[in-house]
């Protein structure tokens, strides 16, 4: 039953504190205390073509997302040092977080069984969540495409 751990709208967002690429930490619920909504997205690996496209799309959209009250957090299992190289190489301005033990991935249902080139494998499931200021999931999207996802999310959220 691979979908058993998946979150849906209305569920409480699992809280987390993760290391950033710049030796800091980010706690989800502390961000929510400021009355912001948070877009949390999980991606398989820094500096791969699809993940780079998605991170660059979020970076390109960051000003309008922030103006609409959203903070963007990108989470992967990569070490902070690799995330720092990713940020520098691609000029990323979104917050990148490291979850090497995959605990947060698993709490959000963003790690598990998936199809890769027709085979069932265990891995990161590219997923995006919108967490409201009340700590509840407003949007839960699993198996999103790297290309075009940010534009679709902006449309779904009513952000021009």
From TrEMBL:
EC main group: oxidoreductase
Provenance organism: Nocardioides humilatus
Keyword list (alphabetical) reads: Antioxidant, Disulfide bond, Oxidoreductase, Peroxidase, Redox-active center
Could you tell me the superkingdom of the organism this chain comes from?
Bacteria
What EC number(s) does this enzyme carry? 1.11.1.24
* GO biological process, any: cellular response to oxidative stress
Q: Give GO terms: molecular function aspect only.
A: thioredoxin peroxidase activity
Catalytic activity, reaction form: a hydroperoxide + [thioredoxin]-dithiol = an alcohol + [thioredoxin]-disulfide + H2O
Q: What is this protein called?
A: thioredoxin-dependent peroxiredoxin
Q: What does this protein do?
A: Thiol-specific peroxidase that catalyzes the reduction of hydrogen peroxide and organic hydroperoxides to water and alcohols, respectively. Plays a role in cell protection against oxidative stress by detoxifying peroxides and as sensor of hydrogen peroxide-mediated signaling events.
Assembly with partners or alone: Monomer.
- What does the similarity note say? Belongs to the peroxiredoxin family. BCP/PrxQ subfamily.
Q: Which PROSITE patterns match?
A: THIOREDOXIN_2
Q: Which GO terms describe its cellular component?
A: cytoplasm
Report the residue ranges that make up the Thioredoxin domain in this protein.
7-160
